[in-house]
Design goal:
- It is a single chain.
- This protein is of the alpha/beta class.
- The chain folds into two domains: 12-135 and 293-306, Rossmann fold (3-Layer(aba) Sandwich); 137-291, 3-Layer(aba) Sandwich (Rossmann fold), CATH 3.40.50.1370.
- It contains twelve helices and nine strands.
- The protein has helices at residues 17-34, 58-69, 91-101, 114-121, 137-151, 169-178, 198-207, 217-220, 240-246, 254-257, 287-292, 294-306, and strands at 47-52, 73-77, 104-109, 126-131, 157-162, 184-189, 210-214, 226-229, 264-266.
- It has a five-stranded parallel sheet with strand order 7-6-5-8-9. Strands 2-1-3-4 form a four-stranded parallel sheet, sandwiched between helices.
- It binds phosphoric acid mono(formamide)ester.
Amino acid sequence: MNTFPHKHILNTKQFTRQDLEIIFDKAKEMEQILNWEKDWKLLNWKIMASMFYEPSTRTRLSFESAMRRLGWEVITVSDSSTCSFSKWETIEDNAKIISAYCDIIVMRHSEAYSVDRTAEVSDKPVINAWDWAHQHPTQALLDLYTILKENWRLDNLKVSLVWDLKYGRTTHSLVFLLWLFDDIEFVFISPDELKMPEKVISFLKEKNIKYSEITDYNKWVEKSDVLYVTRIQRERFTDMSEYNEVKDKYILDLDILGNNKDITIMHPLPRVNEIKTEIDSLPNTAFFRQAKNGVPIRMALLYLLLKK
Ligand code: CP
């Protein structure tokens, strides 16, 4: 029986550890299907509306790939200038129309909480593929799944999050999942201008989770289990001189990595210049495997939401 309790996937705060076990068990099964180790019986025909009003490579294509791997269909908007938002249609009217054409909606939009508003009026499940600087829950799920696969555990981990912690919604979403596990410690490394927002810090204080905030890249690397690097979000800066001030501050290379040969190196991608390509061939460099994990995780979510 499908005991997954959610109708929509909107933010990572909605999940319990039990929900995560259900998702990850299903993702393992999906990996067996992808590897031809298990047969897949097609269920009733389903259509996913893939509504990307902001640019995306990984999230859109892995969702569309996941849907097709399950034998289902996709309709898509990948350029907001070609749909009726360009004629000022409201989020709510758009949601009612799209939900009439499909069985599930996956949506990326530039307005915070736009996906929540879509879910409020849609009679079909809605998945948040990120809504501006608010949340990116399916990225956090595949990040957590990657940490589990690379480290064989989710408890007792020291996780360092680096760079643009102000605008990087993937780090916020991941913190709101990882705190569920035992003995988690966070290290936030960023310039003062891009520190973790107060909403995340006050959440960790309230939950009594250990964290520290530092600006020096060299000091912490050797002591962490996971190093999660992010891109500086140039498109969020209104003043380009502020961007130029910080843009080359943290570049990960072999020197910075030092003696910690086991640290799991992650990045939600795309990267710009924050990780040198000399890191790519290390066995503990996980960011390409991380992106690949997006397919089984999204297959699992689509299955769990559509099977209801
Ligand atoms: N990680 C991520 O969300 O990538 P895209 O912007 O390419 O979807």
